Amino acid sequence: MKKVLGILLLLLLSGCWNYQELNEYAIVTGMAVDYQDNRYQVSFLIANGNKSAEENSTNTSLLSGEGETIYQAMKDVSLESPKELYISHLSVVIFSESLAKEGIHQVLDFLLRDPQSHQNFYLLIAKDTKPSNILSILSPLADYPSQNIASNIVNSSKLQGKISDASFNLFVQKYLEKGFEPIMNSVIILGDIEAGKTSDSQEKSEQDAITKLDSLALFKGDKFVGYATQEESIGIDLVLGEIGLLYFNVPCQDSYAVTVSDNYDISYHVEKDKIELQAKVKGSLREVECRINLEEEKEIEKLEKAAEEELRQYMVHAIQLAKNYETDIFGIGAKYKEKYPEEFSKIKDWNAFFKDYPVSIAVDFKYHSKGTLEQSLERKDA
Amino acid sequence: MTNQEKLKIIQDALGNSSDIVVRDVSPSLSYLYLESVSSDDKISDFLVESITKQEKVEDLFSALKEGIYNSHIEILEDLNDCYYYLASGYTCLFLENEKKYFVIETKTKLDRGISESTSEPLIRGPKDSFTENHAINLGLIRKRIKDPKLRIQDIKIGRRTNSKVSIIYIEDIALPKSVETILDSLEKIDIDGILDTGYIRDFLETKEKSFFPCMISTERPDFSCQSLLNGKIVIMVENSPYVLILPAVLTDFLKSSEDYYQKYVSSTFSRVLKLIAFIVTIITPALYIALMTFNQEMIPDQLLISLATQRSEVPFPTFMEVIIFVVLFEILREADIKSPSASGASMSIVGALILGDAAVTAGIVSPFVVIVVAITSICELVFTDMDFINAIRQWRLIFIFSTIFTGIIGMVSAGLILIIRLASLEPLNTPYLLPFSPFNISGMEDSIFLFPSNKRKNRPNYLTKNKKRVKS
């Protein structure tokens, strides 16, 4: 009897620690942060808004608030919401360009420190628009806007070279590491923003506005320094080795042979006064516009040479861009530190050192397949 | 003593009951029987016929002893012994001025025949099941195991019911110590009556205080024989179609007699499924409560939003919702088992419509709770042993209550307590979690995984010293 009483006391005295009904939460899936006039403007995208007429689906809603700190802004939003904000299932955080230029240190701190935060979401920069606009554009393919962007990043980083699969964790990890600077994806809106916010837009086959992932944004520390172009973005991913499938055009006579590389491996050979990158790439042909004899070894070798040059150019441009901004987004400094820790500690400003640090690139490309056609498409004279 | 005096004593003792039939065949011969349990045909065809032939003989007693046709005759002296025989369907035959008297078996058939098992049906395997007739039940076992070492020991339990209880085992397989322990505890029972094997269960389980049963109860003779061959002991009670098999360990409840008739791979598969069902049926409602009220971060994004939307119209806290529905389902199930089959159809309509659909539409419960309770109860249905099912239900409630207060931590604690409780059970010195804890290699051949019959060479060594099953 005493035992039973003891167990009951243990259970009851604990109260209902951490007890919270699920429907009392406002599930935040997207967060947009802007900074104007020394005040943070924070918007939260709530996934479980009022229940729509359709069964088991909801309308999302966007709540905004402002304050001198992120937390204050969040509590300001709470005043608008009958439910408690719940950020465990956050999938994207979008920054305005102006805030990113000032530095996003405080936001990173908030997101790391909050006990609810699970730290597996994506960071984005809203290019040429307010970040809250991105959250309010509805997409017909996704259930709620921020899911649209998050799954877009996951898929695009696998299938294209322009997007980096850069989650919050990775960003912070790079930010904290010496000799490594972070990058971020950017997102733009195409079309009429105001019309895109209405759900009418969702029902049209051609939408009034859509969100689209754009090129990469370069950071130096927690400060945004500039955008890369599409080509430079590819180069950045190539040097980082974070590439799944990459398609690129290989010049062939006066047109192109479209190539998809599906096997990519890069190795770094660091020395005191230079670094050598060696990339081994394998790929296949997807679209041959020129008329060449694909059964001849020589022609293929020619194409392979051209492909190597093409890839090399991407990387050279990317490295040049990073050197111009004096930001080592490739983590070459980290690799240098690993090999020459003493020399690294003597270098005061790695990014300045990186600017004059020679980088040489060697690419080895091989075709393993020509697709399902052996020859280029051509009429044979009988 | 004259016949009239003897008959008077018996009639008085039975309170002049209306089913007493007395006939004086001649001045020196009278018989008495209870017509409710005796067969008139047997008496007139065999008994009356044979005794009327003997009338003019000098030594009537020895003539009758040899001359009565019936195969089962006993000669008694004490008049007090006759009541047991009378109630069992015997006829008493008295001779004038003779102390000894005959009791002659003239039972009528008060049982249904051997019918198909209803509570443990099989697809492939024998269809017969035990009945309420003790002799038939013993026969169903005897005809399967023709070994002379098969031992059937009878004792009578019950001051008033005087019920026969048989302990059945194979002498050179079963552990003598276990047989002794069982006999000891059975002999100690002093109760007015037992009507079913369920009555003696509690007398045998005095040490083990657990919801989980330490013995299997089955109505399948083939399953009983499989257990006997493995060294287990079967207890059979008169008038009960269920026998008890001792000792039982947890994995025994995942077994079915069909396992040995089909390919070993399929048997292993079905045992693994049952193990999964066992875990699922105990923890699912608790897990649901834990995820919905404490550990939301463990739910995937899409599901979380859909769950939050579903719950938004329900006014009750999650645990209330679950408890309401679990209890309602238990009541429905109880009603379904007990109700006559004629009202079964209306019962299922009420159950399906009211519980399933209307409760959701009315906003009393969320659709997901219906799914959770459905999963729980479907998984419960794979088990056939009622005691085991009841233990599962009780533990499910324990899991739910410990989760209500502390979420997933409470669930894990309840799980630990369950494992500790199971591990501390030791029916007949057999640890309940055998062959896993303590690890027992010979038991492994037939636990969750079933080895093919030709590879399963040994009996589990915790049940017998005579290990070889397949000799080669």
Characterization of this structure:
The complex is a heterodimer of chains A (382) and B (472). By secondary structure, chain A is α/β, with parallel strands linked by helices. Chain A has 2 domains: 22-227, no CATH class; 231-369, Nutrient germinant receptor protein C, domain 3 (GMP Synthetase, Chain A, domain 3, 2-Layer Sandwich). Chain A has 14 helices and 13 strands. In chain A, strands 1, 2, 3, 4, 5, 6, 7, 8 and 9 form a 9-stranded mixed β-sheet that branches. A 4-stranded mixed β-sheet of chain A has the order 10-11-12-13. The N and C termini of chain A lie far apart (100 Å). Chain B has 3 domains: 3-105, no CATH class; 134-248, no CATH class; 264-429, no CATH class. In chain B, 45% of the residues lie in helices and 12% in strands. In chain B, the strands form 2 sheets. Chain B has a 5-stranded antiparallel β-sheet with strand order 1-2-4-5-3, sandwiched between helices. Chain B has a 5-stranded antiparallel β-sheet with strand order 6-7-9-10-8, with helices on both faces. The A-B interface holds A 11-12, 14-23, 25, 27, 29, 47-48, 51, 56-58, 86, 88-89, 91, 116, 118, 143-144, 147 and B 292-294, 296-297, 301-302, 304-314, 317-318, 401-402, 404-407, 410.
- Adjacency order of strands in the biggest sheet of chain B: 1-2-4-5-3
Q: Helix fraction of chain B?
A: 40-55%
**Largest contact between chains:** A-B, 30 and 27 residues
| Fraction of residues in β-strands of chain A | 25-35%
Please, how many domains of chain A? 2
Radius of gyration of chain B: 29 Å
Number of helical segments of chain A? 14
Largest sheet of chain A: 9 strands, mixed
State the end-to-end CA separation of chain B: 68 Å
Mean pLDDT of chain B: 88
Strand/helix succession of chain A: HEEEHEEHHEHHHEHHEEHEEEHHHHE
What is the strand tally of chain B? 10
Structural class of chain A: alpha/beta
Tell me the domain tally of chain B: 3
